[in-house]
Amino acid sequence: MMMSLKQIFKEKGEDYFRDIENRILRDLMLNDYYQVISVGGGVTKLSENIKLLRKYSYPIWLFGPISTLLGRVTNIKKRPLFTGNKVHLQTLLDKRIESYLKTSSLFLNVEYLDKREVLQILLNELVAIKFCSKNT
Question: How many domains does the chain have?
Fold first, then answer.
């Protein structure tokens, strides 16, 4: 039976979800494919996930002021730990910022960038990393 994220959190709890998230992340990190993976903000709650991300990927943190982030959050109704409230988003960020800093290899302030600009910067960065890794 398929369950929504909200149902999983409500019926099974966050720990159950984080365990599933960790298994999926591990499977994704240990394959040989080049891929872009967008993870949820809570993925860094498990130290094993931080280790996996640091060892097998190039984590990028897209950050900006709360007002910018709030305007870009989609599918609020599907997000089990986020209510759409500005104060709540700040509280989540305050709890997670240390793990984001510990995990990320690149920090990109998206405050004044549209989606196309963000994508172009990320593509340029990833091409540069790929080029540099071939030449070392």
Answer: 1
